């Protein structure tokens, strides 16, 4: 073989290596892969590597994680895979029987790029399984080798049954390999558990992603009116969504909107590699994940999306400024009217919107309006669900918040004609859908890099301190600092459009 041949061969080899490493999927594409159309044939354990390890474990809503360190050349690992997958099938992917509880992952230590990662965990044999809270695996969150680390080695996981037994002991659960979805559902209402709302942040991401997907699949932006309504709602999300990745995704849609939907006419099918709205998943590529947490029902067909939408609306209402209250009100009303594809819900909600005769001037009034409107829906559905038996038996409709959750919200002890202390209701809602909702999320971002923590804190403060005069425009500019001109131009343009009254609420 000549030198020229050798050089050519080496060049080809490096191209192949480069191609295979550059095509190694990032965290989101991996999560998307397992939720794809042929999901049944696919592995459920999420393949991690040195570049996606931290982000996947930081972003997961799951309470626990299992990380399997293996080597693809190891025959014992190959034989173990079906056992591991059998357990992963219970917890991972859109068809998971018990979603959002344990994230099952694997790392191939035979890949050179993962050597440092495997060293960090002192992997001594294959397969070697670790257990712990996902964020504790993230670099910088403590050394796994230290004695008191919350990360432990799973010492009895030889078969699927033994691994699941081990998990059951840790979680004090009784999951079984033969469990069927919702068959033995253990979801129960616990109205006194104030902390549960901290999982709601994942549900508002889910509901936002699902709403966006519904709009895309129904090609629901059909006219200049629906286009303007879409833009206004996306503006609200870009400025005030409680999830940072949804704020970012919404801002990116706004910046690119002129190209994606010229004159309000959106292209939905990609042709010639051109971007479409679908190219910009609003809360990132791994959302919707396919399940709800705070809004998970005890039956397949209950709660979920509509519950997530309510939580989204409440969480938006507590984040806005006085000067934005009417804008937020019309944005949400128009969004429901144009894009919520439940006819009865849409019509009832629209009636309640139309009954508002004077524009909102105070954010407090808007927060209380969303709350009382939701209670009116609860009151109506209480009767319907009782007579038709269509409600979730574990989550019967109630007038909310119940006394157990907010005793000071009640002025009287008469359950038949409730008298509210609206100042206390307002305080309660601000805290519940404000800091409480994002408490888990913030905790996680603190585990991330210092830079990210500073950014998250600054952004959260921007929203929380109510310090800005034109917060929607300003927060939007912060969210898309890198392309501020595009965003502001887009914002200015839609403000101009908004000046022409489209509908009077008076
Ligand atoms: P949800 O009512 O969805 O509430 C979600 C969570 O919000 C609750 O678990 C609770 O923690 C909290 N919550 C409850 N009440 C309040 C309140 N007043 N203020 C603040 N937080 C509260 N369904 C119909 O059958 N007919 C309709 O006309 C209809 N209209 C709807 C209109 C809108 C805009 C939306 C978003 C949904 C509508 N739905 C309607 C669906 C219905 O309201 C519920 O979302 C669905 O039945 C699921 O109920 P859930 O038990 O999950 O609780």
TrEMBL record:
Q: Which cofactor does it need?
A: FAD
Q: Where in the cell is it found?
A: Secreted
Q: Domain ERV/ALR sulfhydryl oxidase, which positions?
A: 298-400
A Pfam entry, by short name = Thioredoxin
Name it: Sulfhydryl oxidase
Species of provenance: Brassica carinata
From the UniProt record, give one GO term of the biological process aspect. Answer: protein folding
Reactions catalysed according to its record: 2 R'C(R)SH + O2 = R'C(R)S-S(R)CR' + H2O2
Molecular functions (GO terms): flavin-dependent sulfhydryl oxidase activity; protein disulfide isomerase activity
What keywords were assigned to this record? Answer: Disulfide bond, FAD, Flavoprotein, Glycoprotein, Membrane, Oxidoreductase, Redox-active center, Secreted, Signal, Transmembrane, Transmembrane helix
Q: Where in this chain does the record put each Thioredoxin domain?
A: 20-172
Q: Which Gene3D superfamilies match?
A: ERV/ALR sulfhydryl oxidase domain, Glutaredoxin
Record-listed E.C. numbers: 1.8.3.2
User: Which parts of the chain span the membrane according to its record?
Assistant: 468-492
């Amino acid at each position: 073989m000549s030198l020229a041949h050798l050089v050519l061969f080496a060049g080809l080899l490096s191209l192949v290596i480069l191609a295979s490493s550059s095509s190694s999927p990032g965290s989101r594409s991996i999560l998307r892969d397992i939720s794809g159309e042929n999901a049944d044939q696919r592995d459920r354990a999420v393949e991690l590597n040195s570049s996606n390890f931290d982000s996947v474990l930081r972003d997961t809503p799951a309470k626990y994680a299992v990380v399997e360190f293996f080597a693809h050349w190891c025959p014992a690992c190959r034989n173990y895979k079906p056992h591991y997958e059998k357990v992963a099938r219970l917890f991972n992917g859109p068809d998971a029987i018990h979603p959002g509880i344990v994230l099952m992952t694997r790392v191939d230590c035979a890949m050179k790029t993962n050597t440092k990662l495997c060293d960090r965990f002192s992997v001594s044999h294959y397969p070697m399984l670790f257990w712990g809270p996902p964020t504790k695996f993230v670099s910088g969150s403590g050394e796994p080798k230290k004695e008191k680390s919350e990360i432990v080695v799973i010492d009895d996981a030889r078969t699927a049954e033994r691994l699941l037994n081990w998990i059951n002991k840790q979680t004090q659960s009784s999951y079984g390999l033969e469990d069927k979805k919702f068959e033995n559902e253990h979801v129960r209402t616990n109205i006194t558990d104030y902390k549960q709302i901290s999982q709601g942040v994942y549900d508002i991401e889910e509901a936002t992603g699902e709403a966006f997907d519904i709009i895309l699949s129904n090609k629901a932006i059909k006219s200049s009116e629906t286009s303007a309504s879409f833009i206004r709602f996306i503006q609200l999300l870009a400025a005030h969504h409680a999830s940072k990745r949804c704020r970012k995704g919404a801002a990116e849609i706004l910046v690119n909107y002129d190209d994606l939907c010229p004159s309000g006419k959106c292209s939905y099918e990609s042709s010639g590699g051109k971007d479409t709205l679908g190219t910009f998943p609003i809360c990132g590529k791994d959302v919707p994940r396919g399940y709800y947490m705070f809004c998970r029902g005890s039956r397949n067909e209950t709660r979920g999306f509509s519950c997530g939408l309510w939580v989204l609306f409440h969480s938006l209402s507590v984040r806005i400024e006085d000067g934005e209250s009417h804008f937020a009100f019309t944005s949400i009303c128009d969004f429901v009217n144009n894009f919520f594809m439940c006819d009865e819900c849409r019509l009832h909600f629209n009636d309640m919107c139309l009954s508002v005769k004077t524009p909102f001037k105070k954010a407090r009034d808007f927060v209380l309006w969303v709350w009382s409107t939701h209670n009116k829906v609860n009151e109506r559905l209480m009767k319907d669900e009782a007579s038709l038996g269509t409600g979730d038996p574990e989550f019967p409709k109630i007038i909310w918040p119940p006394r157990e959750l907010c005793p000071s919200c009640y002025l009287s002890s008469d359950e038949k004609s409730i008298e509210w202390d609206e100042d206390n209701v307002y305080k309660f809602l601000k805290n519940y859908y404000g800091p409480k909702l994002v408490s888990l999320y913030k905790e996680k971002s603190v585990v991330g890099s210092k830079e990210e923590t500073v950014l998250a804190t600054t952004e959260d403060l921007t929203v929380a301190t109510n310090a800005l005069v034109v917060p929607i425009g300003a927060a939007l500019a912060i969210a898309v600092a890198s392309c501020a001109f595009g965003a502001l131009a887009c914002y200015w343009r839609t403000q101009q459009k908004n000046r022409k009254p489209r509908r009077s609420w008076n």
